[in-house]
Amino acid sequence: MAKDGPNWDGLLKWSLAHSDGTSSNRNLSEEDRRWFMEAMQSQSVDVVKRMKEITLVMQTPEQVLESQGVTPADIEDLLDELQEHVEAIDMANDLHSIGGLVPLLGYLKNTHANVRAKAAEVVTTIVQNNPRSQQLVMEANGFEPLLSNFTSDPDVTVRTKALGAISSLIRHNKPGIAAFRLGNGFAALRDALGSGNVRFQRKALNLIHYLLHENSSDGSIVSDLGFPRIMLHLASSEDAEVREAALRGLLELARNKIDGNTGRLCEDDEILKQVLEERVNGISLMSPEDLGAAREERQLVDSLWNACYNEPSSLRDKGLLVLPGEDSPPPDVASKHFEPPLRAWAARPDAGKNPGTEKKQAPLLLGLGPAPEAANVQGTSSGEVNGDEHNNTST
Question: Average pLDDT by consecutive 10-residue portion of the chain (395 residues)?
Fold first, then answer.
């Protein structure tokens, strides 16, 4: 094999020669077997072994790594590789058992911002849709450094990545949500909305919507902290995703039942009506292409207006709520050419039948079969029916 990589051409030729079916099966020689195993092993990676090696690096003090010439960029590359490995849920859960979870969480406190951000990305991958790893991270006190980075890290990218990890960690995780409330997480979300960073705002708005959807009582906290006014402002953002996320959160607030009312958001709030009217005007001026991309925004504006004012928005009168073709299913161009025979027969069970000539068919019996005379009679009946069908068709 060449030193610069596996000999793929040789491996392909060898495989074809031994599996093309032109030669009889034979036992591999020891030399061929060894060559083949070396070729395959050169492309296989022992993931657990590699994760253990990365764990050893993460366990090494930062000063020692620096003295050995290991740079923060090298650490980021290792974390990139680790993230690929833990995309498999089994590997994500195994990270703790091989001792890699705790040092990974330690990197959330690394002196280099890029390392802190990358560590949060890896945590996100580990806990996403993974209750077992969510529990392991909570038990390893991983929530605290994530919350600290989210609320107070000087680097906005680190704060954004930490928020993404928190969102994945507490999703469908009641202890995580409780810890978020106790950690004054809602106040940090309010700060994120006012940051001016659209990525940070999007993640914050998406988490707010999730929390409101999961527990309507959080609407009181959100209202008391002044979220509605901030979200009203963001509903006019130049970023389409921020606008939609803000409208989605406002709609959730409007739908929440607070003190038996439709929600404090809708109570004598002229600012809300003004914002929605501005969005209607903005949508009216959109090009056809932009209108197509803003389908969800159009529906959110109409739903929010309807929730607060018990009437449809003017988007309906303008014909802008549902554009032509948006509510129509795609054309069915194949079924008429490939209609199943049974379905076609069931659709016209009486076609080709003449009540005057139709004869009662003999019952299906289990046995040696009908007598020759019965068979002749049945054949004559079939011929008559076929003849009638032919005549009816020609008519």
Answer: 48 53 60 66 71 94 90 95 95 95 97 97 97 97 98 97 98 96 96 96 97 91 92 95 96 73 60 93 93 94 92 92 72 52 50 51 48 48 45 45
CA dihedral 184, 188, 191, 192 (to 10 degrees): -160
| Phi then psi dihedrals of residue 261, to 5 deg | -100, 180
Half-sphere exposure of 129 (CA within 13 A, CB side): 5
Say whether 261 sits in a helix, a strand or coil: strand
Could you tell me which of 177, 175, 173, 265 has the C-alpha nearest to residue 219? 265
Backbone angles phi, psi at 214, to 5 degrees: -75, -35
Q: Fill in the amino acid letter for 393.
A: T
pTM score, whole prediction: 0.72
Identify the CA nearest to 138 among candidates 165, 112, 98. 165
Residue 238 token pair: 């130049």
The count of residues in the chain is: 395
Name the DSSP class of 220.
H
Structure tokens, 339: 């209609």
Angle at 228 between CA 222 and CA 229, to 5 degrees: 130
DSSP bridge partners of 258: 261
